[in-house]
Every structure is written in structure tokens, then in C-alpha cells.
Amino acid sequence: xxxxxxxxxxxxxxxxxxxxxxxxxxxxxxxxxxxxxxxxxxxxxxxxxxxxxxxxxxxxxxxxxxxxxxxxxxxxxxxxxxxxxxxxxxxxxxxxxxxxxxxxxxxxxxxxxxxxxxxxxxxxxxxxxxxxxxxxxxxxxxxxxxxxxxxxxxxxxxxxxxxxxxxxxxxxxxxxxxxxxxxxxxxxxxxxxxxxxxxxxxxxxxxxxxxxxxxxxxxxxxxxxxxxxxxxxxxxxxxxxxxxxxxxxxxxxxxxxxxxxxxxxxxxxxxxxxxxxxxxxxxxxxxxxxxxxxxxxxxxxxxxxxxxxxxxxxxxxxxxxxxxxxxxxxxxxxxxxxxxxxxxxxxxxxxxxxxxxxxxxxxxxxxxxxxxxxxxxxxxxxxxxxxxxxxxxxxxxxxxxxxxxxxx
Length: 408
Ligand code: CS2
Ligand code: MG
Prior knowledge:
Layout (H helix, E strand, L loop, with lengths): L2 E8 L7 E7 L4 E5 L7 H11 L11 H11 L6 H22 L3 H5 L6 E10 L2 H13 L4 E6 L32 E4 L1 H19 L4 E5 L6 H10 L7 E3 L10 H7 L4 E3 L10 H5 L5 E2 L8 H14 L3 E2 L9 H13 L6 E2 L6 H6 L5 E3 L2 E3 L12 H4 L11 E4 L8
Bound molecules: D-mannonic acid (CS2) and magnesium ion.
């Protein structure tokens, strides 16, 4: 069996999805996602210029050797651009393998450990009452877990994950305003004074059952993160996410010394070497990698297996930037993983997105049910794709009030 062609498509409704289609001489094709948010053209170029020419003619069933060829053969290893490009190839090869076996992907991992996988939605508010309304909106829809992000009184600009007033289900589409980032201002003191009490109030309003998650989004220093984690311990959060940048994995020890709040980290990681110390030293409770950014299914399965040895559960990234292909790969891993935790779910469920990526996965009452179709369970409509093209966008950058460049 041989790979005869591979095509890359960039664009989509509200997103610059980077979709790879690998075609074989037996007519079976595989789909993969290389969407690196706000840097989408780079994995696309890596695929077109370097990886695809070395893919043609290979046996698509040899996904491990192909992964090793591209990882070791690059010489300069890792990084989100390369790992997103490999990730797409790997995802597509697993899709082909499962189609050949006439099985949904999760069967190739070891079958189902659960029917439904718990997901969480993003509640957001410009102030606490707005956020309470947003949480109530998702609880009404049957979600059992909700991430909560709130505007901070007096904060010069909105702050992370905050929608304008009255928008409860804001589909966070890419800001296609070009490559020049907008600037936001952050003030840690205002956040530290307001957010712990706000989380407390949310717990009081919604009772003990609701799983409440909060994303600090890398904004605190390790000591501040330890103080914050201690201050919210009584809230019984499901998790506190990215409390401090984890480039320095050992910095997380300080939080563990001061609080039992569950810690979730990993959405910015692209390899097992970014998180092996966090996992082996049990400094986190959830690993947040995404199949696309972290080298595909083959590499993410290694991370999941290491995490399982250390009581660390999965909490795969599922931001609006993720393609339904990445979310499908994660849905299959979520069905299988013995150490599944929760899945972030914010894919744009719009008719346009469904037309581009016809899929059979279902979301009912805050639970994701994986498709039993052979392969990933998602298709890709090239005719639909023809109407989209790349539009440059960028994350904001964040400064402190004195101008210091901070973490977005
Ligand atoms: C966020 C992400 O979903 C999350 O947990 O941290 O949405 C993040 O802001 C984006 O992926 C950045 O591109
Ligand atoms: Mg996050």
C-alpha cells in the first residue's frame, strides 16, 4: 500500500483551519489537523515544503516509522510548528489505519473505557453578575462542568477570556485583524483582590455539585500562584489552569506546598519533554496537551500513558481554534484513556463548520459521545473548503501598567 498524494487546505468559517488530506493507492484517504492558532501558515508550509515530498510513496500503515523519520530526521527537534505538522500526518495515518480495519479509532487503542466523556463549556462575563448569568445558561443546557472567566473591576482592559456584557455563548472566533497584535493591560493586584472572592460567590450560588474550572492563563508568578491557590482551596475547584508559566516545570512545586487545589497545565506544550517532570513529580493533576500541537495521536498517547502511571488525568485542550478533526482524535482518546479527566469543548458548532467537517460525534447534556464510524469519524468537504482562504490574525499581547511585557 502506498501514499500517492497529500494536500493541505488553509481556511474555514471563523477559523484558519489547516487540514491535511493523505490519499493512498487503495482509495482510502486520511484526514489530519495542523491548525496552530495564529501561526497557521507555518505548519502548512512545513508540510508542503518538507514533509509531504518525503511522504509520497511510503506505506501509510507504518505510522510509527514515519513519525520517527520526521521527528529524528528534522535534526532540530520539537517546537509547535513541526509538531503540529507531524501531528496532522500522524492523525491522518491513524484515520487510514482504522478505516482499513473498518473500526472507529478508539478500538485500535484498546476499546472503550466509558460511553460518554465529560466536557466543559466556557462561561464568561464582563462582571460577576454577567458571569453568573453565563454559568446559569450552560447549567440550563445540561453542562456539569463550566470554566468561569470574569472581568476584573478597575482592570484597564478586559482580561483573559472575558466577553462583552450579555454575550453568554460567545464563539471566540479568531480576531482576523492581521499580524499586528492588539495590546491588553494586566494588573495582578486587582485580579488577586477580586477573583478568589468571585469564585467563592460562584460556588455559593451554584452549590457543591457544579464542576467549576478557572484559567489563570499564565498570568501569575509562582509565589502569587501559590497564594491564589491557597486562597481558593475552599472553593473545591475542579481545576486551576495555567496558574504560572510552566517553562520552569519545577516552579510548580511551590503551589503544591501551599494548596491542594487541582492543577491543570499543558495546552502550550508540544512534546512529552515539556511535561515529563510535572508528571513524574506529580506536580499537576491534569495534562492539557492537544493532539495537534503535541505531535499527533502517537506522541500524545505516550504522554497519556506516562500520566496514567502518576495519577495524572487528561484534560485535552479544546479551544475554539481547534479543528473538528483534532477534537475527533481527542474524542477517541477520551473514550479509551483509563485516566480520562475532562474535555474542553468549544468547537464552533455552526452549520458552516458542520458542512466543511461532516461528523457523527454527539454532545448531549455536557457529555461527548464518540462516533462509531470507521476512522476518526469526521469527513472533509473539498467543495466547501474552496470558499475559504487564509486570513491573518493574532493573539493580543499583554503589558503591565508600567509597560512591562507580560504573558497573554
Ligand atoms: C485557553 C485557550 O481554552 C483555553 O484554555 O487557554 O483558548 C487559549 O487562550 C487559546 O488556545 C490561545 O490561542
Ligand atoms: Mg487555557
